[in-house]
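Quick one: structure for this chain?
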Amino acid sequence: MMNNIKSKSYISVFIFISAFFLFTSTTFAATEVYFTKEISQIKKGDTFSVDLKISSEKKINVVDGVITYDKNKLEIKKVDKTNSILLLWVMEPVFDNKKGELSLIGGVPNGYSDKNGQILRITFLAKNDGETVLGFKDIFSILANDGLGTNISAWFEPMHINIEKKQANYLYNYILGIILIVLSAIILIKKRNDK
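Got it. Here's what it folds into:
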């Protein structure tokens, strides 16, 4: 009898723990906002693009927030919303390179729930070398398509970027130097022969 009660208790605890982890994992994975970029190596002086994307199992209606970046390392050159899932813009994307911030408020008629939804493409200039992070201000929020504007508990994933020093092309300069020396020698020899 006692063993039977113990085994039922263990089963109950196991079910409870399994349900807890299943619930929490699906809750945290339900909506994610993140960055992607096509190139892996970025050097000082390079211009490169980063896509702001969203994946959501829940139907979202509004994206409202501020992206942050290091103004000493990065400068926004252009923001493109051509392929954005957001079709209604309460506030067009606005960036301030003095503050290192990009603000936006956009909506999706009838909602959106899918993977890798494009929000914006941001083109940056890598001003200085070093490690830097693209992130989100705390006020960044995703609202559900439920007619109530319910705030969805989303996972915001920053992007770490390493900007490398611009390497001088010593080989190019060396070859160019040799060519100039050879040309100078040819010109001198020709002048001597002409005399």
